[in-house]
Amino acid sequence: MSQATHPHVDAPAPAAIPKPAPGSFIADPAALGLAGFALTTVVLSVVNAGWVPSTVEPVVFGLAFAYGGIAQLCAGLWEFARGNTFGATAFSSYGGFWLSFWYLTGHTDLSGAGSDINQGLGLYLMAWAVFTLYMTVAAMHTNNAVLTVFVLLTITYILLALGEFFTADAITTAGGYVGILTALAAWYGSFAVVTNSTFKRAVVPIGPRE
Question: Does this UniProt record's set of keywords contain Protein transport (predicted)?
Answer without folding.
Answer: no
